[in-house]
Design brief:
CATH superfamily: Alpha/Beta hydrolase fold, catalytic domain
CATH topology: Rossmann fold
Radius of gyration: 18 Å
Oligomer: single chain
Number of domains: 1
CATH class: Alpha Beta
Largest sheet: 9 strands, mixed
CATH architecture: 3-Layer(aba) Sandwich
Strand content: 15-25%
Length: 311
């Protein structure tokens, strides 16, 4: 059943073009911020496109010591991209990359495909058109998953990282990417997806309106049959028995997921798989009324969740 679900979802992401990545990266410089060491990096996961990001190191990291590493994935912020999660002065409710490093983790944050410095000098829509002209059988969903997997490869090369203890956290589009990454890469041992579970059944028209859809094959199947090829309980099921926390608002004012009842149904269905795997404590749902964000009290719970499951 797991293989069937996995293959069915992967089919909606198009054909992976057989890219290879060695984990090599370029160090662009270092600086100190918020008492932490920040290493600026870039790498080429997709030919012709450079991905920029950072590794953030705890202040007390000792030579030859290894710490858990958490990939922090930004949302729909074309201007800041990965900086969205490392600038507490500007984005205090999204600064996972700083706050988790202050708690002792190594953190990794890279631009999602189509965001940030790798686009320069082009606009995001131009980059998306370039992508589909070069990889017509692939998808933006597939490319974004691939880049985060390459970020794991980069982090694994760093001597301060315990590659057996990878986690991930993200909000909005970042939360969605977290669900995909945890579902398809078993190196992720614990995941926190904030406003990331957006059931296809109740959000079928959102992505179809985009000129360069994250998944054109999924859109085509919905248009043909009226039925989504998969839904999020199946992505959650692929994560079992590893840990995943859903953080979902019941009042998402910007309309990314207006029907919280659909999220409850995904959780309810996924929980049976976690029970079957003997992993009931590893599936969690935190529902709040703070809208499309992660306020301080919510973030503290998320960080405790990651700490507990990355021991």
């Amino acid at each position: 059943m797991r293989a069937e679900i996995r293959n069915r979802i992967l089919a909606t992401m198009g054909s992976f073009p057989g890219l290879a990545f060695t984990g090599s990266y370029e160090l662009l410089g270092e600086y100190q911020a918020h008492g932490l060491r920040v290493m600026r990096i870039r790498f080429e996961a997709i030919p012709g496109y450079l991905t920029h990001g950072v590794l953030v190191l705890p202040a007390d990291l000792k030579p030859k010591e290894k710490r858990p590493a958490v990939v922090c994935i930004h949302g729909t912020d074309h201007e800041l991209a990965h900086k969205n999660v490392i600038t507490p002065d500007n984005k205090p409710n999204r600064a996972y990359g700083i706050e988790l490093a202050q708690r002792g983790c190594v953190t990794v944050a890279v631009d999602q495909f189509g965001f940030g410095e790798g686009n320069a000098p082009h606009k995001p829509a131009e980059v998306e058109r370039w992508f589909y002209s070069k990889f017509p059988d692939w998808s933006l969903d597939g490319a974004r998953l691939w880049i985060q997997q390459c970020a794991l490869d980069v982090a694994a090369k760093f001597e301060g990282v315990d590659a057996a203890r990878f986690g991930c956290i993200g909000n909005s589009l970042g939360g969605r990417t977290v669900v995909y990454l945890a579902a398809f890469d078993e190196r992720i041992k614990a995941a926190v997806a904030s406003t990331g579970v957006s059931p296809n059944l109740t959000n079928v028209f959102r992505n179809r309106a985009a000129p360069n859809s994250p998944s054109s094959r999924l859109n085509a199947e919905i248009a043909r049959s009226g039925i989504p090829s998969f839904d999020y309980q199946e992505l959650l099921a692929l994560i079992a028995p590893r840990a995943v926390l859903m953080i979902e608002p019941w009042n998402d004012a910007i309309g990314c997921n207006p029907l919280i009842e659909a999220n409850f149904r995904c959780f309810e269905k996924a929980r049976f798989v976690f029970e079957l795997c003997g992993a009931s404590p590893k599936l969690g749902l935190l529902c709040h009324g703070d809208g499309h964000d992660t306020t301080s009290i919510v973030r503290q719970y998320a960080y405790l969740w990651l700490s507990e499951h990355l021991k």
